[in-house]
Amino acid sequence: MNSNLKRQLEEDDLVYSQETAQPKYQDYQVYDDTKEKVKELIFFAKLAFFCVVTVLTAFVLLSAKLSPVFAFPLAMLISFGATNLVGHWVRKRQN
């Protein structure tokens, strides 16, 4: 057993160990996350637009003396439709 511990590495063993060794570091690759940032910005813009249109529509419906039970769901449906229409219009203008 002692003889194996003191054994000198041969030249072939050194060449083989150097060829199979993996690099200890990796080159830094810049990650371009601008598309994700734009998608997040569009999502929050759509959410803000939906909220503003919902509040304004609910105000108009409640001012028209519509029952709140009907005014709020109707305002949300109108806002959802308006948000989708604006989204389709923007996509159509881009192409």
From TrEMBL:
Residues spanning the membrane: 41-64, 70-90
Keywords: Membrane, Transmembrane, Transmembrane helix
Pfam families recorded: DUF3270 (PF11674)
InterPro entries linked to this entry: DUF3270
Name of this protein: Membrane protein
Source organism: Streptococcus ferus
